[in-house]
Amino acid sequence: xxxxxxxxxxxxxxxxxxxxxxxxxVEQGIERGRLEGExxxxxxxxxxxxxxxxxxxxxxxxxxxxxxxxHLADRxxxxxxxxxxxx
Length: 87
What we know:
Radius of gyration: 23 Å
Number of domains: 1
Oligomer: single chain
Number of strands: 0
Structural class: mainly alpha
């Protein structure tokens, strides 16, 4: 009797852990998708304004954090050159 209850409790705890893990994975996937979407939009804006990005700047953009991407998105409208944008 006690063993059955313990096994039931253990199984419920395992399921709770699985559900929490799945939820965290979904949240991380959503966040990663947002970041990649923002990165793609910033790249598109830069290319529209200044043409094709040199490989070194493309790599820098690919490694940019969300705050760096936001900064670039704000600056792309006012920058006069790629050098000015990536200062």
